[in-house]
């Protein structure tokens, strides 16, 4: 395994997350605000911005802590961190694990209480990153019950006339205001990644209706959100076409007909917003795993092929000289632009979205496992190696150079272990930089080129996938 990938399991990662988890609880316990993004410039550079707890990203920071807890419980060879056995022996691993478990409890408490929300479709993103791991690691029945309640809350947003779950109740931008619950029905491609919660709960509850809702939703979005493209797949791809994605579709809730298509976070309605494409890859790969319906497998594969093609055919300015040790002359080609069709304003520093890369890599790794199970070793290796290439390139280009370390200081925080910046005064709270939450010129909440909590979450989750597969 490359040294770049091992950074996912480093002391820097654990130290940063423990420090943020402790400090962000000050005057915020139990949490009413959760880490969302880290500015790369301006007055608050390097420090996490905390967003109110009902925002859709609230589940990812508790999820980050639980990815570390999963390592502590199941993979002690990478906990507290990988590859520094002598350094590891300086610390009380049990104390760090207990501290981490305590922090997990503090951050997941308000998340458990959100299961009954019916005002959002994002319950998969909110609940699963922490509560599913908590249930599976500790047998905490409260977390399981929150997942099951959350699935039924999500299913309450399903409309049979449309064959889909309502994503947003409202869309407000400079050029549009959509607020009617009787005339409009907004569905976004991101919704594919909330279906996993429905399938999971369906099995626990022996309730096939939840799975049927998820499957119907996935079929509807193939017709409404996926755009067949002329680009043909390579290396053994057997699908009839490849797919790009539309971000937002507004349906008539009475007839199920499409009223219009839009984008809320991409460049324009007919462009391919990179993170939307990534959500689709992961969502359809998960849907195939639950249903074993080949249609979903080839859709996921067609989405992945298009994503790969856009990476490999991107302009030369995406590449930068390699300052690392892997021997390649240039890096950066496999870190996606924020939107594959948006104009590049700065040829020396094109705007990227590291979160799109880490999400897509997770989807491709899931897809690789499915292909391997079917005996398709060519595509299994293609998606596995591409996923690793994306994450490796992302670490080489976007890993924050401002790193943290543990110091045995006698401080009672962290059970006597204190966290310091490796270079004094050089602090950056997230692991990755160069994510873009929203760069749509018409949106009222536009921010780009920053650290982002779900870029880090899917980076660490990718590492845990590698652990589950025995690659680390």
TrEMBL record:
TM spans (from-to): none
GO biological process: one example: polysaccharide catabolic process
Assigned keywords, A-Z: Hydrolase
rRNA-binding is among the record's keywords: no
A molecular function GO annotation: chondroitin hydrolase activity
Keyword Hydrolase: yes
Family: Belongs to the glycosyl hydrolase 88 family.
Name recorded for this polypeptide: Glucuronyl hydrolase
Species name: Talaromyces pinophilus (Penicillium pinophilum)
């Amino acid at each position: 395994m490359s040294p770049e990938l091992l950074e996912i399991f480093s002391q820097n990662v654990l130290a940063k997350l423990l420090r943020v988890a402790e400090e962000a609880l000050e005057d915020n316990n139990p949490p009413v605000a959760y880490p969302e993004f880290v500015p790369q410039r301006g007055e608050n550079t390097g420090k996490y911005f905390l967003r109110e707890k009902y925002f859709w990203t609230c589940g990812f920071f508790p999820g980050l802590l639980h990815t570390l807890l999963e390592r502590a419980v199941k993979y002690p060879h990478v906990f507290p961190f990988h590859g520094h056995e002598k350094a590891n022996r300086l610390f009380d691993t049990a104390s760090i694990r207990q501290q981490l478990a305590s922090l997990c409890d503090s951050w997941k408490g308000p998340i458990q209480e959100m299961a009954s929300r019916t005002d959002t479709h994002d319950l998969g993103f909110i609940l699963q990153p922490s509560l599913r791991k908590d249930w599976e690691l500790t047998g905490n029945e409260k977390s399981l019950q929150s997942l099951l309640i959350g699935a039924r809350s999500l299913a309450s947003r399903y409309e049979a006339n449309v064959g889909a779950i309502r994503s947003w109740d409202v869309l407000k931008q400079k050029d549009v205001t959509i607020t009617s619950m009787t005339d409009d029905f907004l569905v976004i491609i991101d919704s594919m990644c909330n279906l996993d919660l429905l399938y999971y709960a369906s099995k626990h509850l022996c309730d096939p209706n939840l799975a049927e809702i998820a499957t119907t939703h996935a079929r509807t979005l193939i017709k409404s959100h996926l755009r067949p493209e002329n680009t043909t797949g390579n290396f053994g791809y057997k699908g009839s076409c490849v797919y790009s994605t539309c971000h937002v579709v507004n349906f008539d809730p009475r007839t199920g007909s499409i009223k219009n298509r839009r984008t809320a976070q991409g460049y324009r309605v007919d462009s391919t917003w990179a993170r939307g494409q990534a959500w689709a890859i992961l969502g359809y790969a998960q849907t195939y795993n639950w249903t074993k319906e080949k249609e979903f497998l080839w859709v996921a594969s067609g989405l992945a092929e298009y994503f790969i093609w856009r990476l490999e055919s991107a302009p030369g300015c995406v590449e930068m000289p390699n300052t690392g040790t892997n021997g390649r002359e240039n890096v950066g080609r496999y870190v996606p632009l924020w939107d594959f069709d948006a104009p590049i304003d700065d040829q020396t520093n094109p705007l990227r979205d590291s979160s799109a890369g880490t999400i897509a890599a997770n989807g491709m790794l899931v897809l690789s496992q499915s292909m391997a199970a079917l005996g398709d070793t060519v595509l299994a290796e293609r998606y596995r190696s591409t996923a690793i290439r994306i994450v490796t390139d992302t670490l080489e280009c976007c890993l924050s150079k401002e790193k943290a370390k543990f110091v045995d200081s006698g401080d009672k925080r962290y059970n006597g272990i204190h966290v310091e910046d490796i270079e004094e005064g050089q602090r950056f709270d997230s692991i990755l930089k160069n994510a873009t939450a929203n760069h749509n010129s018409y949106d009222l909440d536009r921010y780009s080129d920053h650290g982002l909590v779900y870029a880090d979450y899917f980076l660490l989750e990718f590492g845990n996938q590698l652990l589950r597969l025995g690659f680390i």
